[in-house]
Every structure is written in C-alpha cells, then in structure tokens.
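Title: Comparing notes on inverse folding

I've been comparing how different people in this forum approach sequence design from structure. To keep things fair, I'm posting one structure and asking everyone to reply with a full sequence. Here's the target:
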C-alpha cells in the first residue's frame, strides 16, 4: 500500500424517499458520509447508526445495506433516481441524505492489508474531526456546482478521507503502529506476504529476510509496531481468514483448517475456540443466523 489509494472519481449525493434499504454489492471499496438525518448501516452481521456528519469507510468491499425509515422495505439496488445534485431538486428536503464515494486501489498491494480492517471503519463527527466536516462541505460543493477540475478535486478529497480514516482506526482500534508498519518499505511487503499466504508455515527467519533485517532486529521492531510477536500475528491472520471462510462459504471445517495452515483439524478447533470463544461449527451457525 505504498502507492496512493486512487479514487475512481465516482461520487454521488443520495436522497431516496424513506423508507429505503439500498443494497451495495460486494467488491466496491467506498465511503458514506451522512449529510442530513440518521442512516442505518448493516454489514458483516452488524448494524450501526450513522448520525449527521458521521462517515463509514468500507475499505474491504463487503456487501452492505444502507437504509432509513420504518417499516424496513425489501432491499434494492441504488438507482439514478436516488441521486441528486442540489437540495432544491428534492421533493422532501428534510429526508435523510448522504454522499457516497468509491475508490480504486492497487488490488495486489491493498487487498491483503485492507483485509485486516473491520468491515466498516466508523468515524464520528465531532470537534476534533474538523477535517471530516470540511471534506463533506467541499464534496457537496463539487457535486452541486461542477466546474473544470471537479473530478481531480473529488479524487483528492476522497484520498484524504481514506487516509484520515485509516489514521483514526490505527490510532483507536488497531495494533500499535499498524498503519506505520503497513506503509513501511521493510514491513509492508512482509505483511502483504503473510496475508497472501496464511497457510504457509512461516518462520521468523524467513520474514526477517523479506524485511532485509536481522532476526533479532526484525522481531523487536515487529513486536513494537504491531503489538504482538510475528508468530502471534501470523496466527491471528490465519484465524481471521478462517472466520471469513466459515462465514462466507460452505467449505468443510477440515478443508478450511488446511487452507489456513493447520494440518490437524483438532488443533485448528482448539485455536479457533481460544480466539472466538466457541468451536468453528457453532460460530458458523451463529453467524448464519445473524441478521444481514
């Protein structure tokens, strides 16, 4: 992720008539900012409320639903009729509305690293988030009154929002220094390699060689930046990938265990139970029953 996360210059201002439940398909890396009113966000079995001025970054590209109003209607896709440019175009100016911007990134570099993020990174509006308020205002101006260079302006603002969101998440919820490590020329390739190959029996010496550091220096810096040893980090990534496969596929537990580097299903079950508090099959059933 040493290259800039480049937006595809896709920004839309939305205000469908309530109630609505707009389903966004998997594969789109984007952000939503609530411009007016409250919105409901449903993603990865979780539900969140976006209050006016809040932002949600969905950098992993998970399928999700954004809605408002009751009773909740059937889910549908976003259409051109849901978008607008100026408030005077709306039949109900008081209706909930938001802006959505999408991103295009270097997938081979970004995907393994962004997979560490939660399905939605929530940034709440507040006095210490003036950058979010200002960015929303600038985006609205560019959509409302498109002038020469609007595409470039929108692209840069979306990039800045993306970076601000990663900074906020890294500071509040991530392992210490995750963002610093991900962008570090020595550690970025190591994290990418681990995430791309969770089934490989990684040795510290191999990872240190990738970073072009001695084993002792690598272990000390890795632990200081990520808040855990290289071995513990590899285990975490394996189990998180296993949880994703359990929730998104019907693959047998034994096959998933092998796909994340466990040669014994019993060993995988024990490790998964320690991490998630229940065995894999029970976790899968609970996940399948969770509201989407």
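Reply #1:
Here's my take.
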């Amino acid at each position: 992720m040493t290259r800039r996360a480049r937006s595809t210059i896709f920004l839309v201002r939305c205000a469908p008539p309530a109630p609505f439940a707009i389903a966004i398909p998997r594969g789109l890396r984007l952000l939503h900012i609530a411009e007016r009113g409250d919105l409901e966000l449903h993603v990865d079995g979780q539900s969140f409320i976006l209050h006016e001025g809040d932002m949600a970054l969905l950098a992993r590209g998970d399928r999700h639903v954004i809605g408002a109003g009751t009773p909740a209607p059937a889910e549908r896709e976003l259409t051109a009729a849901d978008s607008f440019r100026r408030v005077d175009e709306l039949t109900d100016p008081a209706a909930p509305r938001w802006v959505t911007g999408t991103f295009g990134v270097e997938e081979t570099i970004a995907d393994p690293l962004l997979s560490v993020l939660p399905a939605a990174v929530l940034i709440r509006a507040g006095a210490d988030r003036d950058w979010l308020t200002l960015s929303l205002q600038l985006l609205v101006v560019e959509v409302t009154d498109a002038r020469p260079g609007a595409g470039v302006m929108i692209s840069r603002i979306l990039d800045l929002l993306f970076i601000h969101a990663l900074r906020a998440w890294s500071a509040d919820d991530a392992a210490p220094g995750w963002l610093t490590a991900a962008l570090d020329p020595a550690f970025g390739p190591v994290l990418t390699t681990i995430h791309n190959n969770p089934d490989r029996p990684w040795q510290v010496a191999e990872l240190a060689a990738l970073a072009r550091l001695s084993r002792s220096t690598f272990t000390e810096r890795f632990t200081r930046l990520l808040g855990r040893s290289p071995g513990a980090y590899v285990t975490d990534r394996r189990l998180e990938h296993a949880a994703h496969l359990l929730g998104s596929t019907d693959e047998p537990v034994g096959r998933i265990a092998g796909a994340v580097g466990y040669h014994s299903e019993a060993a995988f079950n024990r490790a998964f139970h320690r991490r998630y508090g229940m065995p894999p099959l029970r976790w899968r059933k609970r996940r399948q029953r969770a509201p989407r």
